[in-house]
């Protein structure tokens, strides 16, 4: 977490000519290409370009001094050495993390397949149909197992899902404004802690109590301290393994005008009565044990499902079914597709994307096993737990509950430490609850030998696994069916599953097909070598709460990465806990809030946010208990400094922070950044520099040195963790020393004892994918990272130059240069021709491209970010396509075709559409193979343009039956 005392070997950085082969493989343009691009720009060198583009006042004083870059074999050897420092024992800790068998066909064809892990969030649904179908499968699994009709397409983890449920219940309940949240004491400890962290700045009081004896309204008010209650959270099964019939509590909760959330185990729900059937309004949890390794804490797809009436207030993403232009069913994101960018400070959550890749894995685990297979696994797990419990009981060891699924908590007065030590000697980690209790959780990977070993640690005979038929209260035995849709019974042979996964991947467009030029999203190369260690068991099979002496290697890797990020950004300390950029934003703002509180300046609650900022900034500020005040944007695209000075003068004594993206969201290096930081600091505020655009700064400028107090650093953008179709992400924060005491802590990690609670379920967030960024930094070194940044700036300016005479470039710096991205302004063309930015985006599909970022940060524009990874050939292919589209728009302007009859308006064109009766004024060839499209690499969109409004009006969010569209 802190880099202040961490040391690492330093070697003089290599010159660019000495860089290893990997750098040239990561960076697309060759030296000859660079010369060509510079010639187009009329600039003598990349160094001259950078000197002109970046304000002199923020440039780093010296070259980025990191350990010299290593070769790919050397980096793999270093990772192997770190992996070997970990000791992977059998985990029976539980607490939301379990051993699981990832089906090989899923691991190879999804987790290790760039067609899945290099895809972007499916905001362009016509070219995302494969992963949207997989996410619809995920939603169906969650909805069927919980019994609640609408499920989202994943959240970040179980603990943050509990926190999201808390705020959902708060805004949906009619209880008094000062009503409290009541959480059962047997909810997972990390979930309680994250909920408390999120509740504090929102002035929500969280009461933790034993709710098993609450049977009436008086009892609920008593545990709530005689206050109103807006929401209740229970665990099902509980942290100690016990299963409780919560139906009476649900009735009491509803009578009090409150809502009830069940944090439920999906595998247990194949045997247990679904939460909806006993009265839960919301269900949350994790899908980790559906084939996703523990990975020292993540990434794992959390889930959230709701009863009817709550679906339009859900956080995160929701996949729905709509119709395309031919009236055929098609998938899209529904309702709140980009809620944060639209509603900003009025957004109900700051979640932007979540854990799509892991949700896809979990959904395919369910597809692979089907309902019968899942039930068989659950019965096997339960049978093992029964066998252990019976062996303990036979030897006189009492257990805390006679109703359990996979976790048995034994009462061992004064012997807990001895039992834990005895299990450890036998290669097994169990959980010490306290001095008198030990809990043991079994899973699908638990063997008979391991059961015998853990029994021996208690001093009892080897268990005999039971049949797995539950013997608990019949009211809690599941009788309803689940996963009846044919997709869950059609792909149980490897041949069928392999072809299903291939068919889905073929419907998508990812980086393995071509450039995804999304501004602000930095879709760069995710090299195979960087990805290689993710599935190694030494990293993948670690429980996040395993003893620290067993996790030396991953902790060493984490410490390295923290130090390198400090060196890169100029900050003094880094926390890798936030498992998304949104969580990094929140963690940084919470640190600022806590810092002001500690200084007795709790009145500082104003957060200044430029009008051009990412929408998540405003949503995160509200979640951190701050009030958003918007700062205007000047005509040049920069922050309006006069307006900023006025706002600082107006709110000086209440000013907590400013959130500023640098380079700006408009893709400009603003030369006023140093003045801005000084003005805010002079007023007593803190400067939050959003790290979304860090790919334009690495090796050239350091936010922690030019005025930033805190930044989040999207590892899934600048540091090569793949986007995975909308997650996983990692959003660590870097801070200056005065904010270090307020970095996220964790109740189950003694080394993270800070003044602030956790923002994620696991101490180090999505730890199992941190080796990707570690490898990227080692492979590039300081000089390689700097070269990458220079090339990203060069590529963006090259595109801006080539396209500037066809589409106005909306903003540029004083020298006419952009940063790492540029905004193409289509508003004038739209006004004159009727051709919209949507038309251009969909037509780009016919040319074989994912569209740039649409209408953000300015409506009616396209924001283009090429990154350093794309070759000159690919940059030119994109520019040629845009120029050809401009010619198609000119045909509309010249009256040769109307916008309504143009190829632009009817794009994308599917192969099937070419076989229909043709009454368009352009040819089939012009539709499918426009200028510059190579027939041998043609990408065919699987559906026509999708009707979003129809999907929102007719919400279908689980696998539909064929009859659903007969009309």
UniProtKB/TrEMBL annotation:
What are the required cofactors?
pyridoxal 5'-phosphate
Q: Which GO terms describe its molecular function?
A: glycine binding; glycine dehydrogenase (decarboxylating) activity; pyridoxal phosphate binding
User: Keyword Nucleotidyltransferase on this protein?
Assistant: no
Which leading EC class covers this enzyme?
oxidoreductase
Q: Which GO terms describe its cellular component?
A: cytosol; glycine cleavage complex
Record field: catalytic activity: N(6)-[(R)-lipoyl]-L-lysyl-[glycine-cleavage complex H protein] + glycine + H(+) = N(6)-[(R)-S(8)-aminomethyldihydrolipoyl]-L-lysyl-[glycine-cleavage complex H protein] + CO2
Q: Where is the Glycine dehydrogenase C-terminal domain?
A: 788-909
Every copy of the Glycine cleavage system P-protein N-terminal domain together lies at: 25-457, 489-748
Assembly behavior: The glycine cleavage system is composed of four proteins: P, T, L and H.
Q: What is this protein's record name?
A: Glycine dehydrogenase (decarboxylating)
């Amino acid at each position: 977490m802190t880099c202040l005392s961490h040391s690492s070997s330093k070697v003089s950085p290599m010159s660019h000519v000495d860089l290893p082969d990997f750098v040239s493989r990561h960076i697309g343009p060759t030296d000859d290409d660079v010369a060509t691009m510079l010639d187009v720009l009329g600039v003598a060198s990349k160094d001259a370009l950078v000197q002109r583009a970046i304000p002199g006042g923020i440039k780093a004083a010296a070259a980025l001094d990191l350990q010299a870059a290593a070769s790919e074999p050397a980096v793999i050897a270093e990772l192997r050495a770190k992996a070997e420092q970990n000791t992977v024992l059998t985990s029976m800790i539980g607490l939301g993390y379990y051993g699981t068998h990832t089906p090989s066909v899923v691991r190879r064809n999804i987790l290790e397949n760039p067609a899945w892990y290099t895809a972007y969030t499916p905001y362009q649904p016509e070219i995302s149909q494969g992963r949207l179908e997989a996410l619809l499968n995920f939603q169906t699994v969650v909805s069927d197992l919980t019994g609640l009709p609408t499920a989202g397409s994943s959240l970040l983890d179980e603990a943050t899902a509990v926190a999201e449920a808390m705020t959902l219940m708060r805004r949906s309940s009619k209880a008094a404004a000062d009503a409290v949240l009541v959480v059962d004491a047997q909810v997972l400890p990390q979930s309680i802690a994250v909920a408390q962290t999120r509740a504090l700045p929102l002035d929500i009081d969280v009461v933790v109590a034993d709710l098993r004896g609450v049977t009436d309204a008086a009892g609920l008010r008593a545990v709530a301290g005689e206050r109103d209650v807006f929401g209740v959270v229970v665990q099902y099964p509980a942290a100690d393994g016990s299963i409780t019939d919560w139906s009476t509590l649900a009735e009491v909760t509803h009578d009090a005008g409150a809502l009830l959330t069940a944090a439920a185990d999906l595998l247990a729900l194949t045997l247990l009565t679904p939460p909806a059937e006993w009265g839960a309004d919301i269900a949350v949890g994790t899908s980790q044990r559906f084939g996703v390794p523990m990975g020292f804490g993540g990434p794992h797809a959390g889930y959230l499902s709701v009863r009817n009436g709550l679906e339009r207030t859900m956080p995160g993403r929701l996949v729905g079914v709509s119709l395309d232009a031919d009236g055929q069913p098609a998938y899209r994101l529904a309702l709140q597709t980009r809620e944060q960018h639209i509603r900003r400070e009025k957004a109900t959550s700051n979640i932007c994307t979540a854990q799509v890749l892991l949700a896809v894995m979990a959904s395919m685990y369910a597809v692979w096993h089907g309902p019968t297979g899942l039930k068989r696994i659950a019965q096997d797990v339960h049978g093992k737990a029964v066998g252990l419990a019976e062996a303990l009981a036979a030897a006189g060891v009492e257990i805390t509950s006679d109703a359990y699924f996979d976790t048995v908590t034994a009462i061992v007065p004064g012997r807990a430490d001895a039992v834990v030590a005895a299990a450890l000697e036998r290669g097994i980690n169990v959980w010490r609850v306290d001095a008198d209790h030990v809990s043991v959780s079994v899973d699908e990977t638990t063997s008979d030998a391991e059961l015998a070993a853990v029994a021996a640690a208690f001093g009892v005979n080897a268990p005999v696994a039971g049949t797995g038929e539950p013997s608990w209260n019949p009211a809690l035995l599941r009788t309803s069916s689940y996963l009846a849709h044919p997709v869950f019974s059609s792909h149980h042979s490897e041949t069928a599953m392999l072809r299903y996964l291939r068919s889905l991947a073929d419907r998508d467009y990812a980086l393995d097909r071509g450039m995804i030029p999304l501004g602000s999203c930095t879709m760069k190369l995710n090299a195979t070598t960087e990805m290689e260690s993710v599935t190694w068991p030494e990293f993948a099979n670690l429980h996040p709460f395993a003893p620290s002496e067993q996790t030396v290697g991953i902790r060493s890797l984490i410490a390295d990465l923290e130090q390198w990020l400090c060196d890169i950004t100029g900050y003094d300390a880094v926390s890798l806990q936030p498992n998304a950029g949104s969580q990094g934003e929140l963690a940084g703002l919470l640190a600022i809030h806590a810092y002001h509180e500690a200084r007795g300046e709790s009145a500082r609650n104003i957060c200044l946010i430029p009008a051009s900022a990412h929408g998540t900034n405003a949503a995160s500020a509200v979640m951190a208990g701050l009030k958003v005040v918007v700062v205007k944007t000047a005509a040049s695209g920069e922050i309006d400094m006069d307006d900023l000075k006025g706002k600082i003068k107006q709110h000086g004594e209440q000013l907590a922070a400013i959130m500023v993206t640098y380079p700006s969201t408009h893709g400009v290096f603003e030369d006023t950044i140093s003045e801005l930081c000084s003005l805010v600091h002079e007023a007593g505020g803190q400067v939050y520099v959003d790290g979304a655009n860090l790919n334009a700064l690495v090796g050239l400028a350091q936010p922690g040195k030019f005025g930033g107090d805190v930044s989040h650093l999207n590892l899934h953008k600048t540091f090569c963790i793949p986007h995975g179709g909308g997650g996983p992400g990692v959003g660590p924060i870097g801070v200056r020393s005065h904010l270090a005491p307020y970095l996220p802590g964790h109740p189950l990690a003694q080394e993270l004892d800070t003044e602030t609670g956790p923002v994620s379920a696991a101490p180090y967030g999505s730890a199992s994918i941190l080796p990707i960024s570690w490898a990227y930094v080692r492979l590039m070194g300081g000089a390689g990272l700097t070269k990458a940044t220079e090339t990203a700036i060069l590529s963006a300016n090259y595109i801006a130059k080539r396209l500037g005479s066809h589409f106005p470039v909306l903003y540029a710096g004083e020298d006419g240069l952009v940063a790492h991205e540029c905004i193409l302004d289509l508003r004038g063309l739209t006004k004159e021709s009727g051709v919209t930015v949507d038309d251009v985006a969909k037509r780009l599909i016919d040319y074989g491209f994912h569209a740039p970022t649409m209408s953000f940060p300015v409506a009616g524009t396209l924001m283009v970010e090429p990154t350093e990874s794309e070759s000159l050939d690919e940059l030119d292919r994109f520019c040629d396509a845009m120029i050809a589209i401009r010619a198609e728009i000119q045909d509309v302007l010249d009256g040769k075709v109307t916008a309504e009859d143009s190829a632009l308006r009817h794009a994308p064109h599917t192969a099937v559409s070419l076989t229909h009766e043709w009454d368009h004024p352009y040819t089939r060839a012009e539709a499918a193979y426009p200028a510059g499209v190579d027939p041998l690499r043609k990408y065919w969109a699987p559906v026509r343009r999708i009707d979003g409004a129809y999907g929102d009006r007719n919400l279908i969010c689980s696998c539909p039956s064929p009859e659903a569209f007969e009309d």
